[in-house]
Design a protein that fits this description.
Blueprint: H1 12-23, H2 35-45, H3 63-73, H4 104-112, H5 132-142, H6 162-170, H7 186-204, E1 208-213, E2 218-223, E3 233-238, E4 244-245, E5 247-252, E6 258-263, E7 270-277, E8 288-293, E9 298-303, E10 308-309, E11 315-323, E12 336-341, E13 344-348, E14 353-357, E15 367-374, E16 380-387, E17 393-399, E18 411-420, H8 429-435, E19 436-440, E20 446-448, E21 452-453, E22 459-465, E23 473-481, E24 487-494, E25 520-522, E26 527-532, E27 538-545, H9 555-564, E28 568-572, E29 577-582, E30 590-598, E31 608-613, E32 621-625, E33 633-638, E34 649-654, H10 662-668, E35 670-671, E36 676-680, E37 686-694, E38 697-705
Parallel strand pairs: 10-16
Antiparallel strand pairs: 1-2, 2-6, 3-4, 3-7, 5-6, 7-8, 9-11, 11-14, 12-15, 13-14, 15-16, 17-18, 18-22, 19-23, 20-22, 21-22, 23-24, 25-26, 26-29, 27-28, 27-30, 30-31, 32-33, 33-36, 34-35, 34-37, 37-38
């Protein structure tokens, strides 16, 4: 047999290394990297897409994987064309290779380079096992060794492979084997590929192996060696006019072979090129890589949030408009339509979310269907949610604490995440203001502002450091539910101001709180109070029976008792006013209400004391269970002085307390027909106000309850 060793000489060391690894097991060296780590690095470099189980060891290697490895290590072009091997059957005319398959370009490349052939019948068998005889054939073809038909080979070998095995044996590339049909194992392929890549980089330098679009503004670049990021620059240009594209950030992979570029603008669709420069170790033949992109388009819709919604209004439910890469798109300017069954729905213009209102059309245990339609694409997505009970706070988180100490006069915006019992984020600021309280552990150093929503839809509170901090300190910020639990804390460091010189300061205390008859309502078992104050950010209040204590508490004691939340609380001041409701008061009792205001520096005002007297249950009203709906229906009879049905009465039922006056209830309320009206319970506390005429004058009755027992 004549030897023919000319041509393809550059393939010789690589292919011999590859074949040697398959021909015998790689020797173990405890000082070297494990096969699994080598495999992980090669995946990052783009030589492998990864195996289904995520491991390199054990199992076989497919012919498609071998084709990709050979094409990439040899730098073969993978541009699609209608070259000599193209045909109607797909890549290179193979009927079993889908042109859309990730391996198709590599199969076409090695076929055109005559490194690999099909298995007959216009098939490549891409996912069949790569065997020892396949590797022998690849090596013999690459080295242009002469082959002859009708040769005899001892051992198990396919007829088509006998000429290649005979040539390899004749040229001393391999020794005799009992079976050449056995599958090549993954471990050998990984060891061989890793050595081939190291040899190539050592001789030529490192460079780009692949680049592709993986998002609307994201490009993935893979390298055949991990560079020093500080010694290399990356650039992206449009292929059409070579204009540069800004890069906002780089995300490097664990081993440094892969980097994701976050671009400053969306990819338009069309040719682009990525290049590397700056390092002397860059292979000039692999310093640039062209790739084709497509413009971002709407590809899917999804509803988010837990499967159960609390029985409330203003329940925020997120939705997602997804592009072809599965990324959430900015839907602010998109034409999107929404619909709901058993609920009212409205879009939140600023972000990808809707508000769902359930109190009017649903009840606990019902199901609600939400639908979203993208007008331009016609995509429609629906989801069924269950309606649970009224929301309660189940968990609170605080995030965004600055890593560096807060300087005097500076503020930090903390993100507060509040979850309901179903795991949903609560975004109803008004509800949160009523149910949560935020407290600074040291008002002299840090004061917290009321909860609010920022432009991104986050619930935030602002922690403001005092202008005069005498020493470094740690302040605990606590956010808790008004019933007492759950809660969350964050520790905020504050630092002494530079060049701090104590000087005499005249502190102006906040204006004392005031309350007038026109702005509070005292019912039979509750009182709704509005406090007016000047220059204050927080109001603390505590109440007790008038005869409970003869003392007038100092301001600090009122604040401490309020924070204990047994018979008091704190509330933020807005527009010089703060409102709160005292619940579960006894009928016909006198109470003392102690109020103190605090300004942004934590200074307290003088204590103001107010006397409140609750009313009795009215003898002119009679509340009974509705016979047709005894579980949730309530019926109220209103009588006149002669205990006949009162023809001149009005009522108002509200979910929140109001500053009720006779005139207001008459103007806002519903006239009682024939001295009787019926209302429904909603599972939450409701406030019932009734105005009725007795002896030519009107009386106001107010009562709060969640169950309204008979009276």
């Amino acid at each position: 047999m004549k030897k023919n060793m000319y041509g393809r000489m550059k393939c010789l060391p690589l292919l011999l290394l590859l074949f040697a690894a398959f021909a015998q097991a790689a020797s173990a060296d405890g000082s070297e990297k494990s096969t699994q780590q080598k495999f992980a690095e090669l995946v990052e470099a783009g030589y492998f897409e990864g195996f289904p189980d995520g491991n390199a060891e054990d199992g076989s290697v497919s012919r498609a994987q071998l084709a990709k490895l050979l094409a990439m290590l040899e730098g073969l072009s993978t541009d699609s064309s209608s070259g000599e091997n193209a045909g109607e059957g797909g890549a290179c005319g193979y009927t079993d290779v889908d042109p859309a398959d990730v391996y198709a370009p590599y199969i076409e490349a090695v076929t055109k380079a005559k490194l690999m052939n099909g298995v007959g019948g216009c098939k490549f068998d891409p996912y069949g096992d790569a065997t020892i005889e396949h590797l022998v054939a690849v090596t013999v073809r690459a080295l242009n060794l002469s082959t002859y038909e009708d040769v005899s080979v001892e051992g198990e070998v396919s007829d088509w492979a006998k000429q290649y095995v005979a040539a390899a044996l004749e040229n001393g590339l391999i020794g005799p084997r009992n079976n050449y049909k056995v599958a090549a194992d993954r471990d050998s392929l990984v060891e061989a590929a890793y050595g081939m890549n190291e040899q190539h980089v050592g001789q030529n330098g490192f460079g780009i192996t692949t680049a592709k679009q993986i998002g609307g503004k994201r490009v993935e670049v893979r390298l055949n060696a991990p560079p020093d990021p500080s010694d290399m620059e990356i650039a992206v240009v449009r292929g059409s006019d070579r204009t540069p594209v800004g890069i906002e950030s780089l995300e490097w992979s664990e081993y440094g072979y892969r980097v994701v570029l976050q671009l400053a603008e969306p990819l338009d669709g069309g040719p682009y090129e990525v290049s590397i420069s700056g390092s002397d170790s860059i292979d000039p033949n692999q310093a640039a890589y062209g790739f084709t992109t497509e413009a971002e388009r709407v590809s899917g819709l999804e509803w988010g949030g837990p499967d159960t919604l609390p029985y409330n209004d203003h329940v925020e439910v997120p939705f997602f408009v997804l592009n072809q890469f599965g990324e959430a798109m900015d839907a602010k300017d998109m034409e999107i339509r929404f619909a709901a069954t058993n609920a009212s729905i409205e879009r939140i213009p600023e972000r990808s979310a809707v508000l769902v209102h359930l109190l009017e059309k649903a009840k606990p245990g019902d199901s609600v269907d939400l639908a979203i339609l993208h007008a331009n694409s016609g995509l429609l997505e629906t989801k069924t949610y269950q309606v649970g009970e009224s929301r309660v706070v189940s968990a609170i988180e605080i995030d965004g604490v600055p890593a560096e100490p807060l300087e005097p006069g500076r503020s930090a915006e903390l993100i507060v995440r509040v979850y309901d019992q179903y795991g949903g984020l609560i975004k109803d600021v008004d509800w949160l203001m009523r149910e949560l309280v935020a407290v600074s552990g040291n008002l002299r150093l840090v004061v917290v502002s009321p909860l609010e929503m920022d432009g991104s839809g986050n619930i935030v509170l602002r922690a403001n450091a005092s202008l005069f901090v005498r020493e470094d300190a740690i302040v605990t910020i606590t956010v808790r539910a008004r019933p007492g639990s759950p809660s969350a804390t964050a520790t905020l460091a504050v630092k002494q101001g530079e060049d701090f010189f104590p000087v005499p300061i005249v502190f102006m205390p906040p204006g004392n709180p005031t309350v007038t008859d026109e702005v509070y309502t005292v019912g039979s078992n509750f009182a709704h109070v509005t406090i007016e104050t000047d220059d204050a950010t927080q109001v603390y209040y505590y109440y007790e029976r008038k005869d409970a204590s003869p003392d007038v508490y100092p301001a600090s004691e009122v604040m401490n008792r309020a924070l204990a939340k047994r018979q008091g609380d704190s509330v933020a001041v807005s527009a010089d006013k703060a409102s709160f409701t005292l619940m579960d008061l006894d009928f016909g009792r006198e109470y003392e209400l102690f109020v103190v205001a605090a300004d942004s520096s934590g200074r307290l005002s003088d204590v103001q004391v107010y006397e409140l007297t609750t009313g009795y249950l009215s003898s002119y009203l009679h509340l009974v269970y509705d016979g047709s709906n005894p579980d949730t229906g309530r019926c109220v009879f209103v009588f006149d002085a002669g205990h006949e049905f009162n023809p001149n009465a009005y009522y108002l039922l509200a979910d929140e307390p109001v500053h009720a006056t006779v005139r207001e209830i008459i103007d806002r309320g519903t006239r009682v027909d024939h001295g009787m009206f019926v209302f429904e319970l909603n599972g939450r506390v409701q406030y019932l106000y009734v105005v009725y005429e007795i002896g030519g004058e009107y009386e106001l009755f107010a009562y709060a309850s969640d169950s309204f027992p008979e009276f």
